[in-house]
Protein backbone atom coordinates (compact mmCIF):
# COMPACT_ATOMS: atom_id res chain seq x y z
CA UNK A 1 0.00 0.00 0.00
CA UNK A 2 1.36 3.41 -0.87
CA UNK A 3 1.45 6.18 1.69
CA UNK A 4 0.66 8.98 -0.73
CA UNK A 5 -2.09 11.29 0.48
CA UNK A 6 -4.37 12.93 -2.04
CA UNK A 7 -6.19 16.02 -0.79
CA UNK A 8 -9.30 15.08 -2.66
CA UNK A 9 -12.10 16.52 -0.56
CA UNK A 10 -13.48 20.00 -1.21
CA UNK A 11 -12.44 21.25 2.21
CA UNK A 12 -14.74 24.27 2.21
CA UNK A 13 -17.68 21.87 2.39
CA UNK A 14 -16.52 20.28 5.66
CA UNK A 15 -16.91 21.69 9.13
CA UNK A 16 -13.87 21.68 11.39
CA UNK A 17 -15.30 18.69 13.27
CA UNK A 18 -15.93 16.71 10.10
CA UNK A 19 -12.48 17.49 8.72
CA UNK A 20 -10.82 16.45 11.99
CA UNK A 21 -12.73 13.17 11.87
CA UNK A 22 -11.81 12.60 8.23
CA UNK A 23 -8.11 13.10 8.93
CA UNK A 24 -8.26 10.87 11.99
CA UNK A 25 -9.84 8.00 10.06
CA UNK A 26 -7.51 8.55 7.10
CA UNK A 27 -4.50 8.17 9.39
CA UNK A 28 -6.04 5.17 11.15
CA UNK A 29 -6.72 3.44 7.82
CA UNK A 30 -3.17 3.94 6.57
CA UNK A 31 -1.50 3.08 9.88
CA UNK A 32 -3.66 0.23 11.20
CA UNK A 33 -5.47 -1.24 8.18
CA UNK A 34 -3.25 -0.90 5.12
CA UNK A 35 -0.21 -2.84 6.38
CA UNK A 36 -2.14 -5.95 7.44
CA UNK A 37 -5.44 -6.19 5.56
CA UNK A 38 -3.96 -7.97 2.55
CA UNK A 39 -3.10 -11.00 4.69
CA UNK A 40 -6.62 -11.11 6.15
CA UNK A 41 -8.02 -10.87 2.62
CA UNK A 42 -5.87 -13.73 1.31
CA UNK A 43 -6.90 -15.96 4.23
CA UNK A 44 -10.58 -14.91 3.96
CA UNK A 45 -10.33 -14.10 7.67
CA UNK A 46 -12.43 -11.61 9.59
CA UNK A 47 -10.16 -8.84 11.01
CA UNK A 48 -11.20 -8.91 14.67
CA UNK A 49 -8.21 -6.85 15.83
CA UNK A 50 -8.95 -4.08 13.33
CA UNK A 51 -12.62 -4.08 14.33
CA UNK A 52 -11.62 -3.82 17.99
CA UNK A 53 -9.47 -0.77 17.23
CA UNK A 54 -12.29 0.76 15.18
CA UNK A 55 -14.51 0.36 18.22
CA UNK A 56 -11.96 2.06 20.44
CA UNK A 57 -11.83 4.93 17.96
CA UNK A 58 -15.61 5.31 18.29
CA UNK A 59 -16.45 4.59 14.66
CA UNK A 60 -19.38 2.25 15.41
CA UNK A 61 -21.02 4.96 17.50
CA UNK A 62 -20.51 7.90 15.15
CA UNK A 63 -24.16 8.76 14.28
CA UNK A 64 -25.72 7.82 17.62
CA UNK A 65 -26.42 9.95 20.73
CA UNK A 66 -24.09 9.79 23.69
CA UNK A 67 -26.87 8.39 25.88
CA UNK A 68 -26.50 5.10 23.99
CA UNK A 69 -22.71 5.16 24.04
CA UNK A 70 -22.45 6.94 20.69
CA UNK A 71 -20.27 9.84 19.60
CA UNK A 72 -23.14 12.27 19.08
CA UNK A 73 -22.27 12.84 15.44
CA UNK A 74 -24.41 12.62 12.32
CA UNK A 75 -24.84 10.30 9.36
CA UNK A 76 -22.48 12.38 7.23
CA UNK A 77 -19.72 11.73 9.79
CA UNK A 78 -20.27 8.01 9.27
CA UNK A 79 -20.03 8.47 5.50
CA UNK A 80 -16.73 10.35 5.78
CA UNK A 81 -15.31 7.54 7.90
CA UNK A 82 -16.53 4.93 5.42
CA UNK A 83 -14.93 6.73 2.49
CA UNK A 84 -11.54 6.94 4.20
CA UNK A 85 -11.61 3.27 5.22
CA UNK A 86 -12.68 2.22 1.72
CA UNK A 87 -9.75 4.11 0.16
CA UNK A 88 -7.63 1.39 1.77
CA UNK A 89 -9.95 -1.64 1.94
CA UNK A 90 -13.60 -2.39 1.27
CA UNK A 91 -14.00 -5.38 3.58
CA UNK A 92 -13.31 -3.22 6.62
CA UNK A 93 -15.52 -0.43 5.30
CA UNK A 94 -18.49 -2.69 4.61
CA UNK A 95 -18.16 -4.28 8.04
CA UNK A 96 -18.61 -0.84 9.60
CA UNK A 97 -21.36 0.21 7.16
CA UNK A 98 -23.44 -2.91 7.73
CA UNK A 99 -22.91 -2.86 11.50
CA UNK A 100 -24.10 0.73 11.78
CA UNK A 101 -26.68 1.33 9.04
CA UNK A 102 -28.16 -2.20 8.92
CA UNK A 103 -27.39 -3.52 12.39
CA UNK A 104 -27.70 -0.72 14.91
CA UNK A 105 -29.68 1.93 13.02
CA UNK A 106 -32.99 -0.03 12.78
CA UNK A 107 -32.93 -0.53 16.56
CA UNK A 108 -32.21 3.16 17.08
CA UNK A 109 -34.91 4.27 14.62
CA UNK A 110 -37.69 1.85 15.56
CA UNK A 111 -36.78 0.12 18.82
CA UNK A 112 -38.55 0.46 22.16
CA UNK A 113 -36.68 2.15 25.02
CA UNK A 114 -35.97 -1.31 26.43
CA UNK A 115 -34.62 -2.61 23.11
CA UNK A 116 -32.39 0.43 22.72
CA UNK A 117 -31.06 0.14 26.26
CA UNK A 118 -30.39 -3.58 25.78
CA UNK A 119 -28.59 -3.51 22.45
CA UNK A 120 -27.30 -0.07 21.48
CA UNK A 121 -24.50 0.42 24.06
CA UNK A 122 -22.78 -2.78 22.92
CA UNK A 123 -23.43 -2.08 19.24
CA UNK A 124 -22.18 1.51 19.33
CA UNK A 125 -18.98 0.47 21.12
CA UNK A 126 -18.14 -2.20 18.56
CA UNK A 127 -18.15 -4.81 21.32
CA UNK A 128 -21.02 -6.45 19.44
CA UNK A 129 -22.06 -6.46 15.78
CA UNK A 130 -25.64 -6.44 14.53
CA UNK A 131 -27.01 -7.75 11.23
CA UNK A 132 -30.22 -7.45 9.23
CA UNK A 133 -31.79 -10.57 7.76
CA UNK A 134 -33.82 -9.37 4.79
CA UNK A 135 -32.63 -10.99 1.56
CA UNK A 136 -33.70 -14.50 0.59
CA UNK A 137 -32.25 -16.73 -2.10
CA UNK A 138 -35.35 -16.54 -4.31
CA UNK A 139 -36.13 -12.89 -3.69
CA UNK A 140 -33.40 -10.69 -5.09
CA UNK A 141 -34.75 -7.22 -5.75
CA UNK A 142 -38.35 -8.44 -5.27
CA UNK A 143 -38.14 -8.62 -1.49
CA UNK A 144 -41.87 -8.89 -0.65
CA UNK A 145 -42.64 -11.24 -3.53
CA UNK A 146 -39.70 -13.51 -2.77
CA UNK A 147 -40.02 -13.66 1.02
CA UNK A 148 -40.83 -17.10 2.43
CA UNK A 149 -39.63 -16.72 6.03
CA UNK A 150 -42.58 -16.70 8.45
CA UNK A 151 -43.08 -15.76 12.08
CA UNK A 152 -46.17 -16.97 13.95
CA UNK A 153 -47.19 -15.63 17.33
CA UNK A 154 -47.58 -18.55 19.73
CA UNK A 155 -48.65 -17.19 23.10
CA UNK A 156 -45.94 -14.77 24.15
CA UNK A 157 -43.37 -16.01 21.62
CA UNK A 158 -42.65 -15.61 17.92
CA UNK A 159 -41.88 -18.88 16.13
CA UNK A 160 -39.69 -18.20 13.08
CA UNK A 161 -39.10 -20.54 10.13
CA UNK A 162 -37.23 -19.86 6.91
CA UNK A 163 -33.85 -18.91 5.46
CA UNK A 164 -31.94 -15.72 4.68
CA UNK A 165 -29.11 -15.27 2.17
CA UNK A 166 -26.09 -12.97 1.84
CA UNK A 167 -26.32 -11.56 5.38
CA UNK A 168 -23.33 -9.42 6.36
CA UNK A 169 -21.87 -9.63 9.90
CA UNK A 170 -24.25 -12.48 10.76
CA UNK A 171 -21.77 -15.15 11.85
CA UNK A 172 -18.82 -13.51 13.54
CA UNK A 173 -17.76 -14.36 17.08
CA UNK A 174 -19.02 -10.93 18.17
CA UNK A 175 -22.34 -10.95 16.31
CA UNK A 176 -24.98 -10.31 18.96
CA UNK A 177 -28.34 -9.73 17.32
CA UNK A 178 -30.01 -10.15 13.94
CA UNK A 179 -33.12 -8.25 12.88
CA UNK A 180 -35.14 -10.72 10.83
CA UNK A 181 -37.81 -9.69 8.35
CA UNK A 182 -40.60 -12.25 8.21
CA UNK A 183 -44.17 -12.68 7.04
CA UNK A 184 -46.40 -12.41 10.11
CA UNK A 185 -49.76 -12.65 8.34
CA UNK A 186 -51.67 -11.09 5.43
CA UNK A 187 -53.38 -7.78 4.88
CA UNK A 188 -55.89 -6.71 2.25
CA UNK A 189 -54.48 -5.04 -0.83
CA UNK A 190 -55.86 -3.57 -4.07
CA UNK A 191 -55.20 -6.84 -5.90
CA UNK A 192 -56.05 -9.19 -3.06
CA UNK A 193 -54.27 -10.24 0.15
CA UNK A 194 -50.65 -9.16 0.46
CA UNK A 195 -48.03 -10.37 2.92
CA UNK A 196 -47.73 -8.55 6.22
CA UNK A 197 -43.99 -8.18 6.87
CA UNK A 198 -42.64 -7.47 10.35
CA UNK A 199 -39.15 -7.30 11.83
CA UNK A 200 -38.16 -9.39 14.84
CA UNK A 201 -34.93 -9.27 16.84
CA UNK A 202 -33.21 -12.65 17.19
CA UNK A 203 -30.22 -12.83 19.55
CA UNK A 204 -27.26 -14.87 18.35
CA UNK A 205 -27.25 -18.36 19.81
CA UNK A 206 -31.03 -18.63 19.99
CA UNK A 207 -32.07 -22.31 19.59
CA UNK A 208 -33.40 -22.91 16.10
CA UNK A 209 -31.07 -20.33 14.49
CA UNK A 210 -28.40 -22.00 12.34
CA UNK A 211 -25.55 -19.96 10.91
CA UNK A 212 -23.97 -21.50 7.80
CA UNK A 213 -20.33 -21.56 6.85
CA UNK A 214 -18.95 -18.43 5.21
CA UNK A 215 -19.64 -18.00 1.52
CA UNK A 216 -16.74 -18.34 -0.89
CA UNK A 217 -16.90 -14.88 -2.43
CA UNK A 218 -15.31 -13.06 -5.36
CA UNK A 219 -14.53 -10.04 -3.19
CA UNK A 220 -15.00 -8.51 0.27
CA UNK A 221 -13.04 -11.54 1.42
CA UNK A 222 -12.20 -10.14 4.87
CA UNK A 223 -15.87 -9.47 5.68
CA UNK A 224 -18.40 -11.93 7.06
CA UNK A 225 -21.29 -13.03 4.81
CA UNK A 226 -23.45 -16.07 5.52
CA UNK A 227 -26.75 -17.84 5.01
CA UNK A 228 -29.06 -18.16 8.01
CA UNK A 229 -31.78 -20.72 8.64
CA UNK A 230 -34.54 -20.68 11.22
CA UNK A 231 -36.26 -23.86 12.37
CA UNK A 232 -38.96 -23.28 14.99
CA UNK A 233 -36.77 -20.50 16.34
CA UNK A 234 -38.53 -18.96 19.34
CA UNK A 235 -38.02 -15.43 20.70
CA UNK A 236 -40.19 -13.33 23.05
CA UNK A 237 -43.11 -11.41 21.55
CA UNK A 238 -41.44 -8.26 22.93
CA UNK A 239 -38.67 -8.74 20.33
CA UNK A 240 -40.92 -7.25 17.63
CA UNK A 241 -39.01 -4.26 16.22
CA UNK A 242 -41.32 -1.36 15.53
CA UNK A 243 -44.93 -1.76 14.50
CA UNK A 244 -46.25 -5.11 13.32
CA UNK A 245 -46.73 -5.11 9.55
CA UNK A 246 -44.38 -2.14 9.05
CA UNK A 247 -41.18 -4.15 8.72
CA UNK A 248 -40.68 -3.68 5.00
CA UNK A 249 -41.59 0.01 5.07
CA UNK A 250 -39.13 0.50 7.92
CA UNK A 251 -36.38 -1.22 6.01
CA UNK A 252 -37.03 0.87 2.90
CA UNK A 253 -36.33 3.92 5.06
CA UNK A 254 -33.14 2.30 6.33
CA UNK A 255 -32.15 1.46 2.75
CA UNK A 256 -32.56 5.07 1.60
CA UNK A 257 -30.06 6.14 4.26
CA UNK A 258 -27.84 3.14 3.61
CA UNK A 259 -27.52 4.00 -0.06
CA UNK A 260 -25.72 7.19 0.89
CA UNK A 261 -23.36 5.15 3.04
CA UNK A 262 -22.76 2.60 0.28
CA UNK A 263 -22.09 5.50 -2.10
CA UNK A 264 -19.42 6.73 0.33
CA UNK A 265 -17.84 3.26 0.33
CA UNK A 266 -17.86 3.25 -3.48
CA UNK A 267 -16.31 6.72 -3.61
CA UNK A 268 -13.58 5.53 -1.26
CA UNK A 269 -12.77 2.64 -3.57
CA UNK A 270 -12.81 4.93 -6.60
CA UNK A 271 -10.49 7.38 -4.86
CA UNK A 272 -8.22 4.59 -3.68
CA UNK A 273 -7.77 3.60 -7.32
CA UNK A 274 -6.71 7.17 -8.10
CA UNK A 275 -4.28 7.23 -5.15
CA UNK A 276 -2.62 3.96 -6.12
CA UNK A 277 -2.49 4.76 -9.84
CA UNK A 278 -0.91 8.18 -9.24
CA UNK A 279 1.84 6.71 -7.09
CA UNK A 280 2.47 3.86 -9.49
CA UNK A 281 2.51 6.09 -12.57
CA UNK A 282 5.28 8.18 -11.02
CA UNK A 283 7.55 5.24 -10.19
CA UNK A 284 6.87 2.70 -12.94
CA UNK A 285 9.09 3.22 -16.00
CA UNK A 286 8.59 1.96 -19.54
CA UNK A 287 10.45 2.83 -22.71
CA UNK A 288 12.78 5.13 -20.79
CA UNK A 289 10.09 7.25 -19.07
CA UNK A 290 7.83 7.13 -16.07
CA UNK A 291 4.49 5.90 -17.41
CA UNK A 292 2.86 8.97 -15.89
CA UNK A 293 4.55 11.04 -18.57
CA UNK A 294 2.50 9.36 -21.28
CA UNK A 295 -0.70 11.11 -22.22
CA UNK A 296 -2.63 7.84 -22.42
CA UNK A 297 -2.00 7.23 -18.72
CA UNK A 298 -2.59 10.88 -17.80
CA UNK A 299 -5.98 10.89 -19.50
CA UNK A 300 -6.98 7.63 -17.82
CA UNK A 301 -6.08 8.96 -14.35
CA UNK A 302 -7.77 12.29 -15.09
CA UNK A 303 -11.00 10.47 -15.94
CA UNK A 304 -10.70 8.41 -12.77
CA UNK A 305 -10.25 11.52 -10.63
CA UNK A 306 -13.24 13.19 -12.29
CA UNK A 307 -15.44 10.17 -11.61
CA UNK A 308 -14.47 10.03 -7.94
CA UNK A 309 -15.00 13.78 -7.49
CA UNK A 310 -18.42 13.75 -9.17
CA UNK A 311 -19.58 10.76 -7.14
CA UNK A 312 -18.36 12.40 -3.93
CA UNK A 313 -20.38 15.52 -4.63
CA UNK A 314 -23.43 13.31 -5.27
CA UNK A 315 -23.29 11.62 -1.86
CA UNK A 316 -22.43 14.90 -0.11
CA UNK A 317 -25.58 16.42 -1.62
CA UNK A 318 -27.77 13.44 -0.68
CA UNK A 319 -26.43 13.51 2.88
CA UNK A 320 -27.02 17.26 3.15
CA UNK A 321 -30.66 16.84 2.12
CA UNK A 322 -31.13 13.98 4.55
CA UNK A 323 -29.68 15.92 7.48
CA UNK A 324 -31.80 18.96 6.56
CA UNK A 325 -34.93 16.84 6.86
CA UNK A 326 -35.72 17.16 3.15
CA UNK A 327 -36.80 14.31 0.84
CA UNK A 328 -33.66 12.57 -0.39
CA UNK A 329 -34.75 9.24 -1.93
CA UNK A 330 -33.90 10.34 -5.50
CA UNK A 331 -30.58 11.89 -4.51
CA UNK A 332 -29.58 8.80 -2.51
CA UNK A 333 -30.37 6.55 -5.48
CA UNK A 334 -28.41 8.83 -7.81
CA UNK A 335 -25.44 8.87 -5.44
CA UNK A 336 -25.42 5.09 -5.14
CA UNK A 337 -25.73 4.64 -8.92
CA UNK A 338 -23.05 7.17 -9.85
CA UNK A 339 -20.63 6.08 -7.13
CA UNK A 340 -20.87 2.35 -7.85
CA UNK A 341 -20.32 3.05 -11.55
CA UNK A 342 -17.27 5.15 -10.65
CA UNK A 343 -15.89 2.39 -8.44
CA UNK A 344 -16.27 -0.24 -11.14
CA UNK A 345 -14.82 1.94 -13.90
CA UNK A 346 -11.90 3.15 -11.78
CA UNK A 347 -11.06 -0.36 -10.60
CA UNK A 348 -10.91 -1.55 -14.20
CA UNK A 349 -8.73 1.38 -15.27
CA UNK A 350 -6.40 1.08 -12.28
CA UNK A 351 -5.91 -2.61 -12.98
CA UNK A 352 -5.04 -1.75 -16.57
CA UNK A 353 -2.49 0.87 -15.46
CA UNK A 354 -0.82 -1.65 -13.14
CA UNK A 355 -0.74 -4.30 -15.87
CA UNK A 356 0.16 -7.75 -14.57
CA UNK A 357 0.70 -6.41 -11.07
CA UNK A 358 -2.90 -5.23 -11.03
CA UNK A 359 -3.99 -8.85 -11.27
CA UNK A 360 -2.11 -9.77 -8.10
CA UNK A 361 -3.98 -9.72 -4.79
CA UNK A 362 -0.92 -8.37 -2.97
CA UNK A 363 -1.59 -5.02 -4.64
CA UNK A 364 -4.57 -2.97 -3.42
CA UNK A 365 -5.90 -2.46 -6.95
CA UNK A 366 -6.27 -6.23 -7.32
CA UNK A 367 -8.53 -6.24 -4.26
CA UNK A 368 -10.32 -3.11 -5.48
CA UNK A 369 -11.09 -4.84 -8.77
CA UNK A 370 -12.59 -7.85 -6.98
CA UNK A 371 -14.52 -5.69 -4.52
CA UNK A 372 -15.99 -3.17 -6.96
CA UNK A 373 -18.66 -5.30 -8.62
CA UNK A 374 -20.72 -5.97 -5.51
CA UNK A 375 -21.17 -2.22 -5.07
CA UNK A 376 -23.42 -2.32 -8.17
CA UNK A 377 -25.52 -5.08 -6.55
CA UNK A 378 -25.68 -4.78 -2.76
CA UNK A 379 -28.35 -2.63 -1.01
CA UNK A 380 -30.20 -2.22 -4.28
CA UNK A 381 -28.88 -3.03 -7.75
CA UNK A 382 -28.11 -0.35 -10.31
CA UNK A 383 -31.34 -1.30 -12.05
CA UNK A 384 -33.31 -0.70 -8.85
CA UNK A 385 -31.64 2.69 -8.45
CA UNK A 386 -32.72 3.65 -11.97
CA UNK A 387 -36.28 2.53 -11.21
CA UNK A 388 -36.33 4.68 -8.06
CA UNK A 389 -34.97 7.70 -9.89
CA UNK A 390 -37.52 7.29 -12.70
CA UNK A 391 -40.40 7.07 -10.22
CA UNK A 392 -39.19 10.14 -8.31
CA UNK A 393 -39.11 11.96 -11.66
CA UNK A 394 -42.79 11.15 -12.08
CA UNK A 395 -42.60 8.22 -14.48
CA UNK A 396 -45.10 5.41 -13.86
CA UNK A 397 -44.24 2.24 -11.97
CA UNK A 398 -44.34 -1.02 -13.86
CA UNK A 399 -47.92 -2.32 -14.02
UniProtKB/TrEMBL annotation:
Belongs to the acyl-CoA dehydrogenase family. Pfam families: Acyl-CoA_dh_1, Acyl-CoA_dh_M, Acyl-CoA_dh_N. Its cofactor is FAD. This is Butyryl-CoA dehydrogenase. It comes from Thermopolyspora flexuosa. Transmembrane segments: none annotated. Gene3D superfamilies: Acyl-CoA dehydrogenase/oxidase, N-terminal domain, Butyryl-CoA Dehydrogenase, subunit A, domain 2, Butyryl-CoA Dehydrogenase, subunit A, domain 3. Residues 131-233 form the Acyl-CoA oxidase/dehydrogenase middle domain. InterPro entries: Acyl-CoA_DH_CS, Acyl-CoA_Oxase/DH_mid-dom, Acyl-CoA_Oxase/DH_mid-dom_sf, AcylCo_DH-like_C, AcylCo_DH/oxidase_C, AcylCoA_DH/ox_N, AcylCoA_DH/ox_N_sf, AcylCoA_DH/oxidase_NM_dom_sf. Residues 245-393 form the Acyl-CoA dehydrogenase/oxidase C-terminal domain. Residues 15-127 form the Acyl-CoA dehydrogenase/oxidase N-terminal domain. GO terms for molecular function: acyl-CoA dehydrogenase activity; flavin adenine dinucleotide binding.
